Amino acid sequence: MKPTLHSWARTRLAMDWLPWSLLLLSLTCDTGAFYVPGVAPINFHQNDPVEIKAVKLTSSRTQLPYEYYSLPFCQPNKITYKAENLGEVLRGDRIVNTPFQVLMNSEKKCEVLCGQSNKPVTLTVEQSRLVAERISEDYYVHLIADNLPVATRLELYSNRDGDDKKKEKDVQFEHGYRLGFTDVNKIYLHNHLSFILYYHREDLEEDREHTYRVVRFEVIPQSIRLEDLKADEKSSCTLPEGTNSSPQEIDPTKENQLYFTYSVHWEESDIKWASRWDTYLTMSDVQIHWFSIINSVVVVFFLSGILSMIIIRTLRKDIANYNKEDDIEDTMEESGWKLVHGDVFRPPQYPMILSSLLGSGIQLFCMILIVIFVAMLGMLSPSSRGALMTTACFLFMFMGVFGGFSAGRLYRTLKGHRWKKGAFCTATLYPGVVFGICFVLNCFIWGKHSSGAVPFPTMVALLCMWFGISLPLVYLGYYFGFRKQPYDNPVRTNQIPRQIPEQRWYMNRFVGILMAGILPFGAMFIELFFIFSAIWENQFYYLFGFLFLVFIILVVSCSQISIVMVYFQLCAEDYRWWWRNFLVSGGSAFYVLVYAIFYFVNKLDIVEFIPSLLYFGYTALMVLSFWLLTGTIGFYAAYMFVRKIYAAVKID
């Protein structure tokens, strides 16, 4: 039995923040090189063992990760699972040891992994059927050596139409290696792995022994049938020469005999340990990424500047007209936002739910801002497995104090009195929806026996974090926010509500959502493609500097669009702006939903029910969270704007 995972998660979180302490220490005393992210390099001597571990099996077609030993691979004498942090568990990682024997800078031509020369591995009919099913579902196997993931080299030729001599190789890498392949309705298994490991030789003094560091881990998977592999009694084997061999077929209707073999080749590299992740992080065309982001940023800045100029000039003209004492009668006869000054701060319906949702939005905003900023500094790079998700979970819990404070103060401003119920609503409404959807999806993943299913101890740990950390902090923040002086509104509210004139068609709520969502979505839809690729196609996401810039642009564009929309609404003499502005400001979430459907149809090859359910379930959570985030940003921008403009005019 494995020990409970919540103790591992807390221990690992402490380790994730260790780099900050080390950084401070390195500033105060004369230390050697400091490596981000907080993992000291491991120095190997000649013939030191380099452990190969397995992480999981993944497929972009099924979105269901599985443990390595869910398939009949060769097993060591004792299976040992690595203690995982919370993020690794939620991602479906189950890091486990393997029987591969790899020694530093020691070559191996060919070695049988398990079985003997006269006794190959026999797969039962059930095992053969399972392996064939996984291969047909395009599963990849993920291994690590010295915390470096294995990659398969792909050589593409950029000049297809030119002469062969002029063709330029474009080398790319894909994560893991394919479990097998299909050809003419026959299924073949990659049963031989050629490991290519690169090392960097460290410069040392003459008297000391050389040390080596692993800087790259590649694999060339091959399928070689049993008859073409010659094995001896010492577990060594001889690979067939050239292309004379046939691949190892897996017939799902009968037992299959085969050898699992591997070879090891070492090469020296100039890449230093601190730069060893660069290979994995430049798997796509970075130039296109940079150009697209810069292009969207320039467009958004340009549009934002135009909007700002128009709104400021119009407002100055309005305020100047409203403050002319001699023309006050003429002004009052015209329509305008000043006419609703006695109703603009009238509390909306369901103030408790509104303040609770906005409190959760503040909680999300603080969490996302800190996570992106810390990741931008390199503290949450892909080499710290699960660190990003672990940090996000804990930060969301601790940001409850800020969410509770903002919700409590707003609730009091909206003339609310039941602060205890409001605090409970803030602490449970959004997290409860997230937990409910995740629990339902988790039941389906459990049914598939996938490693992506959150274990019961981890679920209990998350509930303890929710009710033991987040709930008390929300109550604490809500108590102080409710006791604080409410927001000072510049005008008094009339006792009798003003009649709202009939609104034009373009003031419809859904039309407002469509109009308001375009600009913020345009700021981040390029980045959204890379984020979706990282989530659904097992790619690494690393451009957190750009993501931070895009996040700032998103905040600016949401604020400006929200101000424009509330200005139009007040000019139409409709003072019911609280809920409408919150909904309309999150309009870009609608476009995220449309883009997610487009991505599902055009980019993913998902056809089964449960993978589709997982995709749209998690997409619904993303859209809900994004709506809360952008709606909260827009609401507070509009609230500040409304208070400013009504404070600038003279009210009799």
TrEMBL record:
Kindly report the protein's main subcellular placement as a broad class. Answer: Golgi
Q: Would I find Aminoacyl-tRNA synthetase among this entry's keywords?
A: no
Keyword Signal tagged: yes
The processes (GO biological process) annotated in the record are: protein localization to membrane
Question: According to its UniProt record, where is this protein located?
Answer: Golgi apparatus; Membrane
What parts of the sequence cross the membrane?
Answer: 290-312, 356-380, 386-411, 423-447, 459-482, 510-536, 542-570, 582-601, 613-642
Q: This protein's superkingdom? A: Eukaryota
What membrane topology is annotated for this entry?
A: Multi-pass membrane protein
Leader peptide range in chain numbering: 1-33
Residue ranges annotated as coiled coil are none
Alphabetized, the UniProt keywords read: Golgi apparatus, Membrane, Signal, Transmembrane, Transmembrane helix
Q: Which GO terms describe its cellular component?
A: Golgi apparatus; membrane
PANTHER family reported for this sequence: TRANSMEMBRANE 9 SUPERFAMILY MEMBER 4, TRANSMEMBRANE 9 SUPERFAMILY PROTEIN
Q: Which family does it belong to?
A: Belongs to the nonaspanin (TM9SF) (TC 9.A.2) family.
Name under which the protein is recorded = Transmembrane 9 superfamily member
Name the gene for this chain: TM9SF4
